[in-house]
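Researcher: Going back to the complex we discussed earlier. I've cleaned up the inputs and rechecked each line, so this should be the final set. Can you rerun the prediction on the complete assembly and write out the structure?
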Amino acid sequence: MNKEYDIIVVGAGFGGPVAAKLCADAGLKTLLIERSENVGDKVISGLTIPFYGFIFGPAFIRDGNPPFERPSDGIINYIIKDIENGIIDIDDSLRVPKPLSPIVAFGYNTYCKPFCQWEAKKAIQAGATLKTSTTVVDFIKEEGFIKGVITDKGEQIRSKIVIDAEGSQGLLAIKAGVREKYPPETISLADTYDYEMAKENIDKIFGYTVKMCWGWDEQKIAPPLGYGNGLMVWPYRNSLHFMQDQCLRTDQKIVPNLKKLFDEYHKNITSKLPWWKNLVAPRIKLRARMWEGFEIYVGLNSTLRNYPNYTNGMILIGDVAGLEGTELCDGVPAAWFSAEIAAEIAIKAIRANDTSKSFLSKYNEKIKKHPIIQWSISAKNRYNLRIAQREHDEEKLKKYIHDGWGLGSLTYFTTPFLRLAFLFIRDDPTILTKWMKMYFRYYQNWIYDFKTKTYQEKTHHRPLFKQSLFLTGLKLINLWVKLFSVFKKLYTKTLINLADNANSYLSKKLPKMEPRLLKLVSLMDPISEKLSKRLIEFVKKADPEIFKVPDYKRGAVHG
Amino acid sequence: MVRTSDKFPGVEWVEGTGDFIKINDEKCTGCANCIKVCLGSCFEIISQKAHIKSLETCMECASCWYVCVEGAINFNWPQGGTGYKSEWG
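Model: Rerun complete. Updated structure for the full complex:
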């Protein structure tokens, strides 16, 4: 039985279902194919989805209620200099200060599986067909065009466009002749342990912070910096992920004995790192051990970065298009952004009845102009750690860590962030209040336990006048932005200009400002703490209705 | 049929994958890169050639395929609905 669709999306990870949903929303006959029996069976990772993924990503995710495990309000970097003598430096400068934290988070930690399942469900609700337990093995090719897929059961399914969301290995993209196999230097193997831990212990020991460890190679406690990778611990609702990751080959073309190295390092860290040994180890129970390979430095290599991400009748999104982030090893926002852009171009192509390379090249143009995607795939701080290791230069080590996962990251990230934010505000002035609602809703949502489907604490509703005060506040912000956008042209020019200079301005000013800034934050602590508690109380007790975004517009895609 | 492994808790394997990883004997130089990166111990060296010991603990990460610079390893996805699965990823 051979069927025909407008769009076939291969792979139901983070990106695939987004593309499928948006195509189905546009009325296209859409098929989403997944090789595993259930969506999410094959995904493995510890994961923080950074806030910009939610803000600039698909509106149905931002304004919906996806399942996430824990807000994340900061990173604590442990710089292990001498583990035997307990000499460890800490850089925890990157945190959302109270009273905003933990309601305003810099990201949300999630398990991949329920998240991908949630997304796939949205795609189905929009009218897409999901076909699981089906491996795509090849394409139907006619006159230089991809015209559909061939499955492992020999079924031929035709479509006008195939959106390839298969993941970093890119077996299909290679078969289609779009790109080649990535070299092992750009692939990191992530050795992941899943531990159960009581919620009150997680709250106490981790709070809302992600912990990262960095150590000199000879410390044998975090994966060697000389190979350029790291060790991370993500707290969830009542469990945590421990992940050490390591590139498959060094710059010197040596393939390390990862099996030996991971076992040795895991043993060292769990028996020697003080906070793990004393606080975490006695309170955890191993639930799962698994691993996956993910791409990490593809964007730093100009040849790989310039591989095409489309061909006649086919568009590549997410990891297969080389869009994994280097710094946070997180490709989720880029997968979402590229899925949205791919859907937009695919819909236009089908309506124009032109699925040729030249039409689909608009996709690539938009990807190349996307400020956050481009920052994400080309950030170099993690990569540079190998230079610090080679020279055993502590100053460099600390600088790269500070610039990657400390406050210094603002000097890299502010320009792409502001640029995109101003473009979004220009197109939809109410987006500011949607962001705010997103944070409140997500915090409230976090109180909800997805497994037992109950709220951990019963929510009471506040007296109505305080809620209307909140809503009036939001309306005032909207009004202000709307008034402002009357002068749209001037506004855009001025603000984009401001955004473009933000990184270099901060590079100059931040080193001087930082100590004063941190001091100010700590001086404010007693007041912030009180305010934070009041804010949490308000959000907990507020009527969930007031944080909803009832008639959201589809998030605009910018180029 | 679903299998588990004592070595790797929290993970299941659905049988019927087929031979999704294959080694080309002529191209294999016995460099053992695949052995070094395989956390599931799926490979072994017999008379200076890599062989698949068992794919029973393979998590389909494709590391073996990436590090095989000779191109001796042919990697495909297992049959749909088979192979590695977990609740905790």
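Model: Worth noting: The longest helix of chain A spans residues 488-541.
Researcher: Good, that matches what I expected from the previous run.
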